[in-house]
Amino acid sequence: MSIFKDNFRSDWYSISKIAQIWMVDTDTFEDQLSALYELEYKYSMLRDRPFNGMPQRQENISNQLESELSGVINQINDVLTSTFNNWLEHHALLSADTWSRKRVEDDEIIYREINEEAYLSMASEYVRYAMGDKRYNPLDRDKVNNSELYKMINKALNNPNNFPSIKNMLVQFLPDHLDRLMEDFHDQGLEDFNMSQGKQFKTEEEVENYIESLTIDDVDAESFIDAESFIEVASNSGLADDILFEFYKNFVFPLWSKYWMAQGIDKTRKNVQEVHDQLMNMDEDNVRESIATINIALNTAHQNGEMLEYIEEQTEDYNLRATLDSLSAGEKVEEWNKELGEIGVQI
Question: pLDDT of 205-250, one tens digit each?
Fold first, then answer.
């Protein structure tokens, strides 16, 4: 093969590669963001700047860019829509049920099951909002949380209307509880049983009648050795997650909502909701309109550090702020301009 043919093939390959300016990596979300900025810039420049070449070639490149852009937009929109929805569920100011259910779902993921650690995590959040940072010593976290959780259990037992799942649990718990009381009485004897129960029964018959007459309304926190035993009973009854939900709803949510409302989260949430709705209703066939919507969503996430963290957790790309900063600063524009110039766009 002649040197001329070798050079011709080499030149043809280089020109062909340069011409395919729509070829981008989209493996990760970070790649997709970079691709969006790059394709949008090239697409706009190709459409708006003079072009040295055949109109058909310009149109073909434009169509390829538009097609690639559409695919990237769809990928990014899927991530953003899911993330914005997740953020809204975690910040459901007007729905204690939605907010609390989301907290329980998170705990199930973190702890694999609703156990004592999940309840202590809930108590920790309650303590932070109830006491404030000045009174909450992280070094005393376990002691404070255990103590506070036991108090919360006692309050819940005395307020059955707001904790229907506890009432259901007690229906299952009561027969075993009565059997244990009867066993304690027979093991301790009348005098010691009176002392442990704070009673003054005179006969065995009085004690047995008392125990047999007890209902779930007579069960209080002292019926459980500690918070751990309460949670064990809740787990055995299959109601641990429902009861934790009611603790979040009745104890934590009111304090959480009050605190964040004072921080202006209602305005932030309204803005996020509006952007979420735009993403959901976006006409993905209209590339220019879709790009505008995606840019609004990315700008919202860029300004909302917590939102950006949600995206990073979902995508497992933990360098998004730096990526967005770099893209916003136009650090690759010179490189893109060179590619555009090589295919005939007048820069």
Answer: 887 887 888 888 888 778 887 889 999 999 999 999 999 999 999 9
CB 264 within 8 A of CB 258: no
Q: Cα 155 to chain center, whole Å? A: 29
> Which pTM was predicted?
0.72
Q: Give strand pairing partners of 270.
A: none
**Element at 215 (helix H, strand E):** none
pLDDT, tens only, 160-173: 889 999 999 998 88
| Beta-carbon contacts of residue 31 (< 8 Å; ≥ 6 apart) | 24, 25
Q: Within the chain, where are the H helices?
A: 3-19, 29-48, 55-90, 96-111, 116-131, 141-157, 164-197, 204-213, 227-236, 240-247, 253-262, 265-280, 287-303, 305-315, 320-328, 333-342
C-alpha–C-alpha distance, residues 302 and 164, integer Å: 42
* Residues β-bridged to residue 51: 345
CA quadruple 127, 130, 136, 140: dihedral, nearest 10: -30
